Amino acid sequence: LPRLVREFVAQNNTSQIKHVIQILSQEFALSQHPHSRKGGLIGLAACSIALGKDSGLYLKELIEPVLTCFNDADSRLRYYACEALYNIVKVARGSVLPHFNVLFDGLSKLAADPDPNVKSGSELLDRLLKDIVTESNQFDLVGFIPLLRERIYSNNQYARQFIISWILVLESVPDINLLDYLPEILDGLFQILGDNSKEIRKMCEVALGEFLKEIKKNPSSVKFAEMANILVIHCQAADDLIQLTAMCWMREFIQLAGRVMLPYSSGILTAVLPCLSYDDRKKNIKEVANVCNQSLMKLVIPEDDEMDEAKPSMTVPAEPTSEESLSKPEAATTGEWQLLRCGRNELDVTALNQPLSFPCSCERVQVTLNLDGIVQVLDYHLSDTSIGMMTRIAVLKWLYHLYIKTPRKMFRHTDSLFPILLRTLSDESDEVILKDLELLAEIASSPAGQTEEGHGPSDGSDVRPGPVELHVPARAGQLSSSSTKGLECSPSTPTMNSYFYKFMINLLKRFSSERKLLETRGAFIIRQLCLLLNAENIFHSMADILLREEDLKFASTMVHTLNTILLTSSELFQLRNQLKDLKTPESRNLFCCLYRSWCHNPVTTVSLCFLTQNYKHAYDLIQKFGDLEVTVDFLTEVDKLVQLIECPIFTYLRLQLLDVKNNPYLIKALYGLLMLLPQSSAFQLLSHRLQCVPNPELMQTTDNTKPSTNFKRTAASNIDYTELLQHFEKVQNKHLEARHQRAGRAEQLDRRVVL
Questions:
Q1: What does the buried/exposed string (b/e) look like for 501-535 if buried means 16 or more CB atoms within 10 Å of the residue's CB?
Q2: Rg from Cα positions in the chain
Q3: CATH code of residue 38
Q4: DSSP letter at 410?
Q5: Which range of residues forms the domain containing residue 739?
Q6: pLDDT in tens, 357-396
Q7: Total domain count for the chain?
Q8: How far apart are CA 21 and CA 560, in angstroms?
Q9: Of 449, 481, 513, at which residue does a domain stop?
Q10: Of the residues 403, 420, 449, which one is the last residue of a structural domain?
Q11: Both 641 and 739 in a single domain?
Q12: Average pLDDT rounded to a whole number, residues 236-249
């Protein structure tokens, strides 16, 4: 047969050569008889050897019947086919490259062949083909990629090993730029990374590592946007190696691509945030996720607040080549995070890998920050009770960062975020509550939250009637000074915005509906708010709200809590000094506002008078105590007040006991408290204190007493104490009626139980 073919070649008789190949193919290689098929395969190989360099002219006719025998049920026949194809390729060398796809397809099937001899033969053929591809500069990568993308999803271990080996070979060839087509195969590579075989996982890890090195070397030519969603999905994989590798890739993408990744922020956060709460068993993933989170946060800049999404000129750059690249990610991010949480099994690779052309990194690309998707993801993770503490803290940090960088856009979402932020105050973690309070304080103090009319958000509960109001003026200049905080301003010139009063109302509602929160965290929350916001505004507004509180029992409890904070917290030192002197109209206004609400609790009202050195009025109040219902709780509060008088806060009061002549009502008020107390430790404590007062006979008041030289008494002389006393009596009558009503309802309930 070889001699015959050589003669035809010498005669340039192509028709006879084709006729010989056709007979070998149709009558032997494709015969029904197995021995005939073996003979045909040997004949085709011999024919190819005889043709030599001219075999390239007949490769299609030579290869097709051999490849058909790759599917033969007889393993010996498959081996002969593998051997025949090896000889054909060895002779043709680079001429077989136009037929590479069919050869690769056949080899990928033989790689998973159960027969070891066939598999061994296919490996020899595979090595030969790799050598040819490596030597040649005519490899058709564009035509090969669709086949590679299809075969890469094979679940067979040997087929996967075969695929990875070819990717490594193609990646090592300088003339072949496989990086341009990485989006086509990246998802498949990550799936192979989860293979049960350690060897295959290691090979895949090496391949991904080589790609990442190439990306770092040439970031300007990388299609980051086309691979972003693929990474997001694999960052949520159950397999630790896949998740860690994908997270490392995400870290590099964010750092290399920068703001190009912003349109995919919602998906990235969906993947990254849960990882922040991992324990030490997944410490590596947690650390990389934290870097991703921090890097992504830095991409948000104040300029994002100025870009109006409604203006096409701002969202679409001048370059027509970039229009598609920006419009597609923006359109995708609206429901992106719901899609990306579905898992990689639902990943539509062709949909995600639409061609997106991004200019090189040296050009400025206008990227619009889509806050809707980001806020939706953050809201979801904050609402999920199963989410870990570190994730919740990260979510709150993100929201705080967005309110700092993009306050105008973020205030569009405030109404939807407000309820969940208030619920977060009940969190078990102090760190979460602190971050939540920082965020709420920023919302309440940011000038961007100020409405044009100068009133709060449209909420019926925000109406503030009454003689004492916290005025929140709307000033145009506030909108330009986003860094201004209300830390040193009085209620006359607050920087608090429209949400401040709404926050105070809802916070008190929260305390009212969740008494355990008030008992365990109430003081902590209010003290932190006094550090973050203006303490005077907080007490002024809460007193104003409690003045109209219908639940009198809660009002009394809340007033007691606020009074304890006012008297004992180091954070309120400045406010106590302001109330102690009552030198300014603002301080007197604050005192009157506090007093009206403090009337819900008689003992706290007296303590407020002691704090503000209104001793005569304190004495007048104690005189009214005889008309009140004296309960165990009432006496307990008097006991606590006596203990407070012995604290450093009331040092000035105790020193004033030395000046009996100018402070007779202080001594009378203290004796009044003494007369209210039963024979208890508090009684003994106060009694001993009063025994130290010098010259008791000077306690009596005379009409010709000289006016006090203390300026504060003169300054506070315009306060109508008679009206305040009448208000106290009115509030106490309401409390008495309410107690009688509660007692009546309890008695009726007891009767029903008996019946």
A1: bbbbbbbbebbbebeebbeebbbebbbbbbebbbb
A2: 42
A3: 1.25.10.10
A4: H
A5: 727-754
A6: 333 333 345 677 888 999 999 999 999 888 999 999 999 9
A7: 4
A8: 104
A9: 449
A10: 449
A11: no
A12: 96
